[in-house]
Amino acid sequence: MSSALLLAEAEEATRSFLERHLRQDGFEVVEASDGEALSLLERVCPDLVLIGEPEALELCRRVRELDRDVPVILLGSQESDPVDRVRAFDRGCDDYLDRPFHYDELVARIRAVLRRVSPPDGDRLVAGDLEIDRPTRRVTVGGTRVVLPSKEYDLLVCLAGNPQRVFTKDELLRDVWGFRAQGRTRTLDSHASRLRRRLAAAGATDYVRNVWGVGYCLLGD
Known about the structure:
- By secondary structure, the protein is an alpha/beta fold.
- It folds into two domains: about 5-115, Response regulator (Rossmann fold, 3-Layer(aba) Sandwich); about 125-215, Winged helix-like DNA-binding domain superfamily/Winged helix DNA-binding domain (Arc Repressor Mutant, subunit A), CATH 1.10.10.10.
- About 40% of the residues lie in helices and about 20% in strands.
- A hairpin with a 2-residue loop joins strand 6 (about 125) and strand 7.
- The protein starts with a strand and ends with a strand.
- The relative contact order is 0.10.
């Protein structure tokens, strides 16, 4: 079964290029133009949203408000800089590519994101009282449902894959946010703090531990 992509790209030549080649690579593509992406999102229920609009950051924020689970990839503008990249992840995107981008890299990232959010049936992670059902993205603590935004969920899944292991900040920023280098960003720390509070509210009071000077682990020793 092919994956459905919602393509919101204002530049006509780029939109036509992506639509044609993505279809040839087996994707179903729904093109959105003239600000119709949000209305299409509710009608077509895509597996992934690809945004290259001039107001991409605002559109990403609004997409995330409508659907917290649908993965979003942003295509930066020619003038984008590292600050734009950080802001894009803060607004909820799952991946980000600068322009000019290579088509093959874009397709590889699309498939990687789709694999991450659509794991095989029966894929379940358990750590202490915490349980993650990856096919449904359902998180529970002692049977209590915990609703998480997309990036906090991705961070939790990464940590829960090896709950005693300490993941470095560089590893988490690379694997969860796609950063090539840590740089100066509080993105990870702010997401980890919010995730810790949500889990604690459900009864998991000693999860997502900050290992000073190294990174994070879910449970520790």
